[in-house]
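Support request, please re-run this one:
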Amino acid sequence: MFNPASFHLFLVTCSLLVISPGPDTLYVLARSLGQRRRAGIISAIGICSGFLVHIAAAAIGLSAILMTSAPAFTLVKYAGACYLIYLGIRLFLTEFISE
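Re-run finished. Output below.
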């Protein structure tokens, strides 16, 4: 149950969580420092695009469907795994075959 006396602790905790950098912030920072401003901006745009896709999917109810349907969740999970394997193979081929 909500305790009004501990509301200030809740606000402090939420503030710390909001201002702490996450993996996406560290990714953009690393790309910006390593490959200049343009790479950092492109990375930030990519992350925001991913957020928009996730928000749109949640808005149309995809999250509810995936929570209630085990086969649908399994399908999405395997599709994601296949995509990661594809990216890994493509990276491997471009890095080691071109040399």
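DSSP finds four helices and no strands in the chain. The chain has a mean pLDDT of 88.
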